[in-house]
Amino acid sequence: MQHFTYNGVTFNITDIVLLKYKSRILKYIITNITTKDNDYIVKFTSYDYDYITRTVKFEVGKKKFIKKYFIYEDTPNIKCTLLKSKHIIYKFHCSFCNTIHKHNYLGHQDCRCVSIHSPYSRSGYNLQLEFENFNEYLLYNFQLYLQKNNFNGWSSYKLSVRKFYEGSVCKDYGKKHFPYITYENINYIKQNFKTDNLECSNGCLVAGLRKIIDMVLSKHILHNDLIYKKDLNKLFKFYKKHNNNNSKLQKTTTTKLDNKDKKILLQKIITDYHYENNQNNQNNQNNQNNKIN
To answer: Most exposed residue of 9, 22, 34, 234, measured as fewest CB within 10 angstroms of its CB?
Structure first.
């Protein structure tokens, strides 16, 4: 036979492959292929020492380690995801060594495979973040935004917002509305889900939702991804339309209330002043009367 197919991959005579032998991954050349009872009997010769040979039976339905040998000349881009942790950790499943590689930053990385025959051994790899959905992308930027602004307890804000849009707090209100939320939605949460908001680190949910609106409106998006550019622009327009006017109205209302409070306070001071003067005058008059008598 000139070739055989195993676990969806076709191997040919003279292909250079990698086999695992006593936990070590070594290079071999396929020199002969036969079949027996629907299984493949394959003979290999060591790539480095032609006097060393191995014969391996590949049974249908089993998954023995065998990979075509190749090496990247240029650095490949690899999509990674975030590990759910208190600290930022990027991870991806390496198909070569069948393990999870973890890194602390995006961009170029040195190869972390245990074998020198890894396809990334010369080039390393370039990590690019991949998100499950727009909510995850928005939440990651929210984390970066809070960290940049030195918010203590940023993880509580992030966790509270995640619980909200996943539906573990406030019933399914977050599933229905997030991320298209308004100040009216936030007020509704404060009035109808007081317990949930308090359980989210004593109010981090409402505060977190407000901060997300501020982040998008101020365009402080620290991690840009072209995949979500349209979604982000759409969300910005929504916040600008529904929350900017609301914010101005709140500011104006607050100013009026402050002025009203100032007038009340000033009137109280004037009243107290006159009352105190009257009391003092009355006391002085009484003292003079006592002296005369």
So the answer is: 22
